Amino acid sequence: MSAPLLEVRDLHAGYGRAEVLHGLSFTAAEKSVVTVIGPNGAGKSTLLGALMGLIPSRSSALRFAGEDIARMTLEERVMAGLALVPEKRELFGSMTVEDNLLLGGWRPRKLGDRRWRDGLDSVYTRFPRLKERRLQQAGTLSGGERQMLALGRALMGRPKLLMLDEPSLGLAPLIVREIFAIVDDLRTSGVGILLVEQNARAALRVADHGHVLETGEFGLSGAADQLAADPRVIETYLGAGRKG
Length: 244
Known about the structure:
Rossmann fold; 2 domains; 11 strands; about 35% helix; globular
């Protein structure tokens, strides 16, 4: 059995003396979608920040693609193949769509790939609207287009694991379905995905495995279809009044 793409054991993280995550352990396999669902304030974004090296953390094991990344800097983790699409997208609004995408090609460029710009064709094939708007300023895009640009920019780095922080946030239901269809398609292209999401129904629909994060600890973990059928998950996150 091959080693997981990401292995996390006993992860603690927080801000100053305030610990937010209390000993999380999980793995993510290649070409899989792992989702972490839970309420606001549970620590979902903190988890991604800790994995990316943006937030101080400690763990008994933090391995990615066979490497110990616990002491790696943010830049080193990016070079190893980790990519994060943050909740606020963090685009350069005064730059064009295409220039934002080209900035995302930093990793293959640093690795000496002379054809790194070819990634644009792949992104434009996946996101035709970005090609139509490639000379537009990023700040003029709609919410859904901005999310597509954030995804496209991350994919320009050819990551091994793509971490998504609330990709459906603030988007209309039709666009949410489109974004999750893209997430599902990315798995088939060989990219591992760690998906943090409040829209539990949509997240569990595309995921292979899931975790319910509550106040810094996993309350439930299991195969996504099993979690979607769990009475506690249904009552708390998939009730009849919830859309997704």
